[in-house]
């Protein structure tokens, strides 16, 4: 995000950006040599001044239908490698309101030492381990959305408009709405192991996704504060866009997105007890309760190997020496008569 005001018209959407782009991934991130203007964009720092300001025109008089009972916009913060599900997880932004969105990243990573552990134990996937059909980078949400698309296609022979699909896959129409809703409900219930959903929906098949979280993920938590726009104050001409202040306060929505902190904690998944930690704990416990140490191990090895070998090899020589001494003492004894 950059310190800028973003205002888009429909004829402005088909434009070409001259910014350099990179294949950003949570595992590799940004290289130190990458310029700040490279897409995906990054903020220069924390605070509203270094954040992103968006001005949106709702054009209330042109409304003729809506998927909800309100007017305005939907906002969702997501990783740049994920497809957002606006209908399920978005925030509602009302026109005539100035909204401050405080962003707190939640960064998760993993130690590469757990790559050798079984996947069922670490409960996460590295990017190189799991490949998706419609996405280049694996994330849990990408996997769930692809699984939902595959299951909907198998049940209804079509997919919803927001789902990934191939070129020859049709989009579900109004006549397929019930089938698509049942497939989606069964998909959601399967995430919580609801076996009764199969009986309620009269289905014999359930989706099997096996979508564990990625070992490297970036998510965002938000805090929102809002205040109503007023035409009693002077508004910047950049925001008005050739309109008057009365139209601005009724139809426009001003959104400020920014970070509060410049540094954030990183949650690292690693082995709780590796081989080195195991040896350290065993040695510490034995030393605490038995006075045991690595010197004791050396002594045990010595007595079981070298000392035993010395006794076995030098035993016959000692027997010979003892036998020769006995022969010396068995010489005939001379008795002198005058000594009696």
From TrEMBL:
<keyword id="KW-0739">Sodium transport</keyword>
<keyword id="KW-0915">Sodium</keyword>
<dbReference type="Pfam" id="PF00858">
    <property type="entry name" value="ASC"/>
</dbReference>
<keyword id="KW-1133">Transmembrane helix</keyword>
<keyword id="KW-0894">Sodium channel</keyword>
<protein>
    <submittedName>
        <fullName>Accn4b protein</fullName>
    </submittedName>
</protein>
<keyword id="KW-0472">Membrane</keyword>
<keyword id="KW-0813">Transport</keyword>
<keyword id="KW-0406">Ion transport</keyword>
<dbReference type="GO" id="GO:0015280">
    <property type="term" value="F:ligand-gated sodium channel activity"/>
</dbReference>
<feature type="transmembrane region" description="Helical">
    <location>
        <begin position="285"/>
        <end position="309"/>
    </location>
</feature>
<keyword id="KW-0407">Ion channel</keyword>
<dbReference type="GO" id="GO:0005886">
    <property type="term" value="C:plasma membrane"/>
</dbReference>
<keyword id="KW-0812">Transmembrane</keyword>
<comment type="similarity">
    <text>Belongs to the amiloride-sensitive sodium channel (TC 1.A.6) family.</text>
</comment>
<dbReference type="InterPro" id="IPR001873">
    <property type="entry name" value="ENaC"/>
</dbReference>
